[in-house]
Structures are given as C-alpha cells and as structure tokens.
Amino acid sequence: MRKNNTNRLSLTIFLALLLVAGSGILFHSKTLQVIAQEEVESTLEESAKNESTSSATTSSLKERIEKVVEEKETQNGSVAGQVDYSTRAIVGLVERVSESAITIQSLSGSVIVPITEDVELTDGKKAIKIGEVEIENSIIAMGLQAGESFTPIKIIVSTDQILPRPQVVTIGAVKEVSASSLSVESRIEGSLLEFSINKNTEIIDSDDDETTIQELFEDVQVVVAGYSQGEDDSQKNIAQIVKALVSLD
Questions:
Q1: The domain containing residue 104 runs over which residues?
Q2: Whole-angstrom Cα distance, residue 146 to residue 204?
C-alpha cells in the first residue's frame, strides 16, 4: 500500500542529500539551523490555527504594541514614525532566569530579555509570576525590535517542547534488528548507531511500499531518519522512518 505524507517527503529530501554528497556527507550547523527554524515556524503556524484566539485579545495586544511604540518615541524625544520598530518573536528554552531578566537559548544563540511589570507573562491562558518560570521551560517572547534593543510585551511559557529535537539521519548496513531496536553501521558516522523502534516508526521497502521491521535482516542497506532525545537517555535515537535501499526478497 502506497502512503504519501510529510515524513515520506522529508525522507526523500534527506535521501537525495545523502546520495548526492556520498558517504562522507557532513551536515553544516547552519543547514541544520535553517531546517530546525522551518520546523519551529511550521509548529507555531499549526498552533495558531488550532488555538481559538478572540478578536478582543488580538486587539488588546495590538493596542499594547502601539502604546509601547508611543512611549518609546516620547522617551527618546523622536518624531512619530522616525524610529523603525518591527515586531519580533524569540523562541527557545529558558537558560537562566532572575527577577529582572530571562535568558533564552534560541536557535541563533542566547538572548537576554528584560522583564518589567508591564510584561504579560503567561502559561497557557493563566497569568504567572517570574518566580514560576523554570530552567528548560519552552518560551516565546513577543515584542518590539528597534536596532539592537528588544522590548518584550508578552511572554508565553510552557513545559511542552516547542523547538524541534536534533535530527539524526544516516545510511548504512543493518547489524542487529529486533521488534524494538535497530543497529546500523553508519557510512556517515563511521560507527554503530542504535535506534529505538516504536509503533510510529515507518518501515519502507525499496519500492516505497510499507513493510515490517521483521522483514529487515543483517547487512541490508538502509536509510534511517529520526531524532535524538539527548545524552541522558539510554536509547537516545528514535527512528521515525527506515527505508531499505535494496530488495528484501
């Protein structure tokens, strides 16, 4: 049975990169950053579609932005419209937190966001205090950017993961396989990579038809795309897609 979805498209792109660059491929950090940023933007767009935000709330936020711009221009003694303000959202994880500032680890580096009594701080729809923000919380800081200066207006904190997990993509020969795990001798890393297999892992044969993990065998060449859970996990790589490059007959 054929199955076309986003995962399949992503695998096709990864596979094309692998085959063009060969076994010595290295993913540049900037390339990974662009891929990750696209995933963040996609996640935020999807969240915006699913979240029912009232027009009153939207108007309130717009009015607050206009008020902050007006106050900034008054403080600086500038003519209305003279200073170029743009809206900005900083997405990342809480790295440090104090009564006066939150340091956000974003995809582009650490950003210190000042906290004043005028900043709206929420966890979902619930207003919270700065003391309730914890290290490693996901965070979105929305506000105004003028040159190097960022003025936060609303900050959303969550325990849910917003940033995408580090991607793991490899090509190589299967060394060991079971119903719940897969070991691949990576031609990219030059070492053995361990992957967990779960109910969401998609197994595809060389004809792009779905198959099962039981059909894979030792030394068969595969491409595996997934993500890393981090250094603290005993089985840190989760396989999302496994594609056989040769016939499984």
A1: 52-75+85-158
A2: 50
Half-sphere exposure (Cβ direction) of 11: Cα atoms closer than 13 Å: 26
Percent above pLDDT 90 for the chain: 37
Cα distances (Å, whole numbers) of residue 169 to 17, 135, 158, 224: 10, 29, 28, 6
Q: Chain-wide mean pLDDT for the chain?
A: 75
3-state secondary structure 196-241: ECCCCCEEECCCCCECCHHHCCCCCEEEEEEEECCCCCCCCEEEEE
For 4, phi and psi rounded to 5 degrees? Answer: -100, 125
Q: Which two tokens stand for residue 9?
A: 């498209």
CA pair distance 156, 124, nearest whole angstrom: 7
pLDDT in tens, 165-185: 788 899 999 999 999 999 999
175 and 149, same domain (yes or no): no
Res. 23: pLDDT tops 90: no
Confirm whether 32 is domain-assigned. Answer: no
* Domain identity same for 64 and 100: yes
224 assigned to some structural domain: yes
The residue among 106, 128, 158 that closes a domain is: 158
